[in-house]
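Note to self: keep these together.
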Amino acid sequence: MPDEHDGRTKHATLTTHGEHRLHEALALWADANQRVEVVLGPSASALRALADDVASPEFLEAYEARRMLRG
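Structure:
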């Protein structure tokens, strides 16, 4: 359904079945994430921090600046 204040925005609602599937998916994701944490052990937090750094706008800026220097 359209947003009454912003024509570019569309809002959606989940059906009851969709909500059920979303809750199932979130439970499966939490289980998978927990298994990854167990496998990675203490290095999990360092890997999460690295992923956060690489996904940051600052990293992208630095990457693009370095790329520009190389031509």
